[in-house]
Design brief:
The chain has 163 residues and is an alpha+beta fold. The chain has a single domain (22-157), classed as Alpha-Beta Plaits (2-Layer Sandwich), CATH 3.30.70. 42% of the residues lie in helices and 28% in strands. It contains six helices and six strands. The chain has helices spanning 3-19, 34-39, 61-74, 104-112, 114-123, 146-157, and strands at 21-23, 27-28, 46-56, 81-89, 94-101, 127-138. Strands 1, 2, 3, 4, 5 and 6 form a six-stranded antiparallel beta sheet that branches. The termini are far apart.
């Protein structure tokens, strides 16, 4: 194989591998699964998805991950949380969270909760870039795919001023 083709192949493989991500399936917290929500008449209930996308310093990844896991462990005790999912690049530095809430007040309580404020303080130096996106959905749209969540993040990046 010619050197230039080999270099192109290695470059393409590296781009593919660093772009590979893994996502946790949606975890229901509120005890009301998709089907149960439909069955009890809450299928059209309006919910808010809070999406966080961050790029993390590779050298500080472990401290970031440790802090993030502590925050994730606190989620089941957060009032108003319906469920969540997390996503990360396997060999890259990007991470995402998607939390689904019944209302803005619940999101604000979580943001001010000790577990979250401590997690932010602990992992803040590891974060190189962070952005937040909100998406309004109906309960019957859950579980929401990461494809749709990433589209919402990308749409926001291309439309300044959109939350």
């Amino acid at each position: 194989m010619p050197t230039s083709l080999r270099m192109f192949s290695l470059t393409a493989l590296a781009a593919l591998v660093t772009g590979c991500s893994i996502s946790m399936p949606f975890k229901w917290i509120d005890g009301l699964s998709h089907q149960q929500g439909i069955d009890n008449g809450t299928a059209h209930e309006q919910l808010i998805v809070a999406i966080t996308h961050a790029t993390v310093d590779a050298d500080k990844r472990k401290s970031f991950d440790d802090a993030a896991y502590r925050v994730l462990d606190s989620l089941p005790s957060q009032p108003g949380l319906v469920g969540y999912s997390v996503r990360r690049q396997l060999f890259g530095n990007e991470v995402w969270t998607a939390t689904v809430w019944t209302d803005e007040a619940s999101i604000e309580r979580f943001v001010r909760a000790a577990a979250h404020t401590q997690g932010v303080a602990t992992s803040g130096s590891a974060v190189q870039h962070i952005e937040y996106t909100r998406l309004n959905i109906r309960r019957d749209e859950l579980p929401i795919s990461w494809g749709r969540l990433l589209e919402a993040v990308q749409a926001k990046e291309h439309a300044p001023g959109v939350s």
